UniProtKB/TrEMBL annotation:
Protein name: Polysaccharide deacetylase
Matching InterPro entries: Glyco_hydro/deAcase_b/a-brl, NODB_dom, Polysacc_deacetylase_ArnD
Alphabetically ordered keywords of this record: Signal
PANTHER family, per the entry: GLYCOSYL TRANSFERASE-RELATED (PTHR10587), POLYSACCHARIDE DEACETYLASE YHEN-RELATED (PTHR10587:SF125)
NodB homology domain: residues covered: 35-224
Extent of the signal sequence: 1-24
Organism the protein comes from: Exiguobacterium sp. (strain ATCC BAA-1283 / AT1b)
Molecular function in Gene Ontology: hydrolase activity, acting on carbon-nitrogen (but not peptide) bonds
PROSITE patterns reported for this sequence: NODB (PS51677)
Pfam families in the cross-refs: Polysacc_deac_1
Single Gene Ontology BP annotation: carbohydrate metabolic process
Length: 241
């Protein structure tokens, strides 16, 4: 009996030590490799979101949607479709208003909690992944960041800005720049976190980009497949293999 207990303990010890022996670098590389692309869409749901979902379905690609609370009413079915089709839901505030949202750490947290609750009531999904309006720099003070962390939220920024809001009339330039940046990240063994919006021109651009990137064997992931959030204060390093 005693021997059996010892053997059991030994097996448990071996199992534990083998998982510990996976190096931090190796673990990191599971979600941060050059071929990994995290597509993220902000400011929906709206009338363009279903077209984005159609494109993603066509290429069998999953993405992350950062939901704006004030856009949910009337778009509940779209929100549900995002969930049903296996995409990840993130939170993007209620108002998107710089002054209102950032007034204090508590106002920022409260807005995220409100949109979190709205989404939960409709879909049953309780997301703790957030992207703050206009990104975390320069608006998120240390106190804001600490309050978000304390409330259990994981903040995400991006490292590829498509500038789709700026290039509305020049989609070609937007697509070209985006693909170029994603390829450049791959060359440096760095995953790409791509910022896009649910705009009228986005579905067509997304389709173009996926037509090219899927041919190049990129791997598309959602934010909940990463071990830690990527934001401007926590930039992932590239891996060397
Ligand atoms: Zn936004």
């Amino acid at each position: 009996m005693f021997k059996k207990v010892i053997a059991c303990l030994l097996v448990i010890f071996m199992l534990c030590s083998s998982s510990v022996s996976i190096s931090a670098k190796e673990f990191h590389s599971r979600y941060n490799k050059g071929e990994m692309v995290y597509l993220t869409f902000d400011d929906g749901p709206n009338q363009y979101t279903p077209k984005l979902l159609d494109v993603l379905k066509r290429y069998d690609v999953k993405a992350t949607f950062f939901i704006l609370g004030k856009k949910i009413k009337g778009n509940e079915a779209i929100l549900q479709r995002i969930v049903d089709e296996g995409h990840t839901i993130g939170l993007h505030s209620m108002t998107h208003d710089k002054k209102t949202f950032y007034r204090s750490p508590q106002t920022a947290v409260n807005e995220m909690k409100q949109v979190q609750q709205l989404i939960f009531d409709i879909t049953g999904v309780k997301s703790t992944t957030i992207r703050v309006p206009y990104g975390s720099v320069p608006h998120m003070t240390k106190a804001h960041r600490q309050a978000m962390e304390k409330a259990g939220f994981d903040m995400w920024d991006w490292n590829v800005d498509t500038l789709d809001w700026k290039y509305k009339k020049n989609q070609k330039a937007m697509r070209y720049q985006t693909i170029k940046q994603v390829r450049a990240h791959r060359a440096y063994y760095q995953a790409s976190i791509v910022l896009m919006h649910d705009h009228a021109t986005s579905p067509e651009s997304l389709s173009y980009m996926l037509r090219h990137l899927t041919r190049e064997k990129f791997l598309f992931l959602t934010t909940d497949q990463a071990k830690e959030p990527y934001h401007f204060y926590n930039k992932w390093y590239g891996t060397s293999h």
